Amino acid sequence: MNHLTTDSVYRLQFKTAASSLESVAIPTIPDYHRLIDYVTEVRRGRRTQIRQFWRICPVESTLGLEIIEVVEQAAIASSRWMGRGDKNTADHVAVEAMRERMNQIHMRGRIVIGEGERDDAPMLYIGEEVGICTHENANAFCNPDELLEIDIAVDPCEGTNLVAYGQPGSMAVLAISEKGGLFAAPDFYMKKLAAPARARGHVDINKSATENLKILSECLDRSLDELVVVVMKRDRHKDLIREIRDAGARVRLISDGDVSAALSCAFMGTNVHALMGIGAAPEGVISAAAMRCLGGHFQGQLVYDPAVVKTGLIGESKEDNIARLSEMGITDPDKVYNAEDLASGETVLFAATGITKGDLMDGVRFFHGGARTQSLVISSQSKTARFVDTIHMFDQPKSLQLR
Ligand SMILES: O=C(COP(=O)(O)O)[C@@H](O)[C@H](O)[C@H](O)[C@H](O)COP(=O)(O)O
Ligand SMILES: [Mn+2]
Ligand SMILES: [Mn+2]
Question: What is the ipTM of this complex?
Answer without folding.
Answer: 0.97
